[in-house]
Amino acid sequence: MGVNMIIKTRCFIVLIFLSLVGHSSFAQDIKIMFDEAKALLDREQYALAMGRFNQISALGQDNDLVRYANFYHAISAYHSGDAAMAQGLFTQLEENYPDWSESANEINLWQAKIAFENGELENGLNHLETITDDNFKEEIDALKIEYLTKEKDRERLKSLLLHYPDPIIASNLLTSLLSENVMDRNFVLIDSLITTFNITPKVNIDGMNLSPKKEVYNIGLFFPFQYNGDSANLVRMMNDWPVRFLQGMKLGLEKLAEENININLMTFDTKTSATTTRAILADPKLKELDLIVGPAYPGPIGEVVRFSKENKINFINPLSSNGEILIDNPFAFLYYPSNESLAISAAEYTRKHLTKNKNVAIFYASEADKPRAQLYRKLIEKDSFNVVIEQMIRPNESVKIQQMLVEKIKVDKDSAERARMIAEMDSLLDAGVKKWEKYSKDDFLNEELGIMPDSLGHIFIASDIPSLSASVISGIDAREDTIYYVGSSRWLSSEQSISFQQLERVEAVFTGSNWIDYEKPSVKEFRERFLKKFSAVPKKEDRLGDAYIGYDIMVTYGRLLSQYGKYFQFGLKTKQMVPGELTDNFSYQLSNDNRYTPILRMVDSKVKQSNN
Hints:
Structural class: alpha/beta
Distance between the termini: 53 Å
Radius of gyration: 36 Å
Number of helices: 24
Number of strands: 16
Oligomer: single chain
Strand content: 5-15%
């Protein structure tokens, strides 16, 4: 029920009261004039109604008929298009009849409505705060939703929320913050809004609000199997990572079937080619897919991103941390945390726990890693950290980091010492000593570590490339001072060249990136299934897909499809966490990458979650 309609209903009650007013002929004449004016208002003849109500108001008498004539005069003025006159008349009513409690709430409601329409949000909210009758809650909320949700100025919304802690303002601000690029999002404020006001982020998918459920869901795996038809190629392909990933997915199908979840899995060979992928997607039947998994390379990824958005089909990239995939596409998901989420998680830890020495070095392996490095730097510099080194080191040159940490370089001695040595030789020369050059060029130099002791507090590796982290940790382990390592756990799944004991010794800190705990019962169950099916133990790779990831994605997302339907994000956004099958948790409430990134440490040669 709109604001105007509710007011008219209440005014009918007022008219019943007015029928009891006075019995003099003069009072009867005013009553007739009032009824005529009200009838004109009801017939939406606002200009005529204004004239009649104005005649009654001009009588200057202090009775209810005159008061209500003034009230309806203001309403008529508003509907005639003169909101300024209406606002003035309502203000006069408040000034002339400060004790008129019967209509004070309606007057404030109208004043709020007019103020909102004029963009005077603070004024409108002030009027709403003076309404004391709980029966007006519906109209108040309707006004707030209609006008406050139109405000797009983020700074104004923050200011409003500071003075008017209202969940509708908070919800609008949250929607605005979540519309930003992930790299620019203020996740501290976002988390605060959700917690303080108990808000569930809204899912807005091109006006869609339904997620159809099906008996059988169609999932397409788009991977570079690169099968060319010859037997030698087939042998190679069967030992390559895409097939291992597929093996995991097929085991996941069996697991889901035991839970009465039916999935139709189709595979498509993208051959690392955008052209090949585009040709595959041209088949109209693929518009019936409910979920796409993959691809692995930039060209095919671009084609799937376009196809996903155009045809409203969810897809999940199982390998990338590139948050650009998610921009302006509510159907795109990352299995791993994005570069941005990893940077945010690491920065939050650093700003709380690594403040003793605020000098920092940041290394990354490629342009793809650069957003993680840049966001991490931006976040920690807000807390006065000093980034003294930010450098891209290619994987084949990763030993350079270790060399920086452990190798000595020759540097000039301090100026006073150099001056003393020169003065000494000058005095020998003046004295006629033949061998006056007692100091060589090297004597004027000292050997020092390239990175001086205690000159760095920690090193952040903004990459999942194992060689960079291995180089840093080996270098730190060889030093006598304390430098902390902070990085992602994703590379730990590889056959790293450094031991867990070494990681524990240097007190390495990791942001959990879909870490798999091999002690978990579901992981043991998967390994048993794999061994029984393929007579081999599944291999865990560092950056490429493998059976673990294929199984985890199939089981986890198959359950999401079964539980929430084709557009499972409608359910995901209502949950802070959803459990993974092999990994611990996924968090997609605030973005379409997995923001569940616990802090991990090495304890007794095992990876464990840490609160410190």
